[in-house]
Amino acid sequence: MSKRHLLALYGNFEEAEAVVQELRNATIKGFDVNDDMIVKSPIEHPEVERFLGDKPVYVQWFTLIGALLGGIFGFFLISGAQANFYMQLKGGKPIVPFPPNFVLTYEMFILGGVFITILGFLICAGLPAKRSPLYSTKVSVDNIAILVEADESAISELKAIFTKHKALEIQEEAGK
Amino acid sequence: MSVSNLLENWAQVRHEHPNNDKPHDPYKWAMAIDLDACTGCNACSVACYAENNLPVVGREKFQHGQQMHWLRVERYWDEDGREFPDQGFQFLPMMCQQCEAAPCETVCPVAATNHTADGLNSQIYNRCIGSRYCSANCPFKVRYFNWYDYPTTDNVWPAEMQQQLNPDVSVRGKGVMEKCTFCVQRLSAAKVKAKGEGRIVAEGEVQTACQQACPTSAISFGNIVNPESRVHKQWAAQQVELAKDKQDKNEGEAPSELRGYRILEELRAYPSVMYLERVRESAV
Amino acid sequence: MRDIREDIAWAKINQDVMKSLENPRKMYWVILFLALMAFGFGVGCEIYQYQTGMGVANLNNPQVWGLYIATFIFWIGMSHSGTLLSAILHLMHADWRKPIYRFAEAMTTFSLMTAGLFVMVHIGRLWMFYYALPYPNDRGIWPNFQSPLLWDAMAIFTYLSSSVLFLFVGMIPDLAIARDNMQPGWRQKLYTLLALGWEGTDRQWRNFRVTYLTIACFLIPLAVSVHSIVASDFAMSQQPGWHVTSFPPYFVAGALYSGCAAIITLFIILRYVFKFEEYMTKPILKKIVRLTFAIAMVWTYLNAVEFASVWYSHDGVSKDVLIQKMTGNYAPFWWGMIFCGSVVPLVFAFKRFQTNIPVLFATSLLLNLGMWLERWMIVAPTFSHGYYPWTWDHEQWPSMVQWGMVFGSFGWFTLLFLLFCKVFPSVSMYEVKEMVYHRTLHLKKSENAEQGAH
User: Fold this and answer.
1) pLDDT score for A109
2) Which end of chain A is more exposed for a tag (fewer CB within 10 A), N or C?
3) Where are the domains of chain A?
4) What is the pLDDT of residue C1?
5) Is 80 exceeded by the pLDDT of residue A173?
6) Domain around C263
7) Cβ(B270)–Cβ(B18) under 8 Å?
8) A51 and chain C in contact, CB less than 8 A
9) The domain at A3-55+139-174 falls in which architecture?
10) How far A63 CA sits from the closest chain B CA (Å)?
11) What is the ipTM of this complex?
């Protein structure tokens, strides 16, 4: 049984929510609501997150590690560079003075934090992403899309659920 | 490699300077200038020009403040309401004070200026990118910047005059900061010679160009660590200590003999040049 | 008055903003040409200076720094606007930042790029500027990490790269919109590439939200530290007039001030040129104007604190420097700074001027002039009256080469900004949609509350 994609577009998210609830409640063979459904929205709807349930977001772990590593790496790079083989005094200050090193360690802490956060974002969000087989540009205007992947047998049942909730458009992947 | 270096030498890298628990050894070059003996003849300044390949910038640039004299002779007047105010001014030869805690050293972004083990403030021409922060931070403004490319400028060293350039000293191009080095080329040559003979440089063996040219011997220069050196004796007699920012002088027997001072001492740059105040008419 | 109408169709938001990316009208090309001319003149001045030496800038001993450093600080200051709007107001859930933060962020990035240019033209041996970068080499030579100028280099690198990344990441959903709504061509290829395949999935939005918030939390201390580090160039030196502990917060306040004034200027220009009246509304303008006024008062206070602390101290040299600023050669510029920085913003206190576009435009330009003068008045007077009497009373003014490069920098900035406005959406479409959506929800809630009360 091959899997096919279906995309349904909705004009407001209440209907989309209703669809998701129904998909959750109904047990359809050949379709797993947790793995095979993706909801796409034009803006960051906290309501969508709420009805889809809490999923852990790991970006802030990246931030923590990145910031700490950045700071530590920065401090040792700078102090190591100052305490090199030809170390010379500057202005009577110690060779490894704490005030300037603190300033630069702080900057490196922030640099590390920001860069690794962005890296973490790209990894966690899966960007750059491969484009889905079905996509509607209306998602970038004002519609909410629900993309499902299901066995052939489940397709008609899913279509029925979609239509029941006044889908504005249903796209179907061409049969193989 | 550097990190292990850092950890092994932790005590050394945290040490501040100048510090009496780690005095200079075996050299600390210092200078004392007797302003009472100074006649303002400017021979010292001219000798410095000759010794260190200083460019003569011409009247226009000089007036604009772009002069290159590493050693400048300043003139000061007493304002005591006398009949002819221009009469009787005091001269002060000012050059890089080779501060022990030099404000210029900390601020160079590329570490072109550092402190050597024998107590000089070094300027590395090759490393200098010309940010001029060192000059901005110098309280004495004794650092001079090459505003133009003097080796290729007309009339700085007209034909045949390049032959009088000192081969021991580099000729600086544009964009580089320079200043008095206590004739480090002479010091290095003397140290090399002395090392070849298995000793340190003796008193009187090396002279800076300005000291050599001064007709009244107003400038004394030498290794202040050596108790026999003239400069050491002068500093001791004047009760001026290198590592102090406020000298407590015991006036004792001959208060008028205590003429020694360092300029802008309160800024805690710990200059290596001591000046002996001129005995003024109003003081006697 | 509300910040935005709640009945704007989302499709219309897309349309209006995408329209701004269409082929530009004639005026655009005229301004672009002028900007190029100014920039070209600046480049010419730099080439002359590069070949002849820094002396052509009319600098001397002791006045070794001039307009390059002053303008450098000015541009870094202007860059704080984007961070203020993007990060601080985001953390405060101030929705009214949404239509305007995109161009402010762009302004930040381009200001930093312009400031970076000045670091390079101000040093005597530009071709060796890479000595200031910490790179491993066989000589084992590293830059001097004690130097505040080097802290500048590292801080600005951090700030520039973080700002660019923040701008880019924040733009990804908009780039997806642009990709979806653009005719095929080089633009569509560009947006497709840059949008990284964004489709607005739940996973993408969740991570996006957290990332944006986290970076905003980092950008705020970064912005404060960057301008404090720039202030340290002066505060960490011993020179009178510079060695002032209040310089870091003073500079940060001045930066926010500069940035806000520039936002007002660009707001008015973009609103008019792209017909963004629906999004860059007058209530939002009013809010920015009030914010600018508040910051102006903070700046005035910090300025007064500096004078007061000099006056009350026994520091004779610093007092002399202050008196020289007020009565010496630089007096007209110093008083000009006081007028533009502390008197002109009082206009903002009057309701009738808070949405009067011509008045606001002129005022914002004057405010930025005042801020530029402030930077110059920090750099120059201390050099002309330092500790050492021999250095006093040298009158020195910047040469045409310096002025040429200052104007050239404005040309460069304008060039970058013009390019940005035509290639990337200068209003954040998805955030404006969010703003409209929140308004709808808010209205619905108050309606329900009213009904419930009955």
Assistant:
1) 96
2) C
3) 3-55+139-174, 58-125
4) 63
5) no
6) 10-310+395-441
7) yes
8) no
9) 2-Layer Sandwich (3.30)
10) 26
11) 0.91
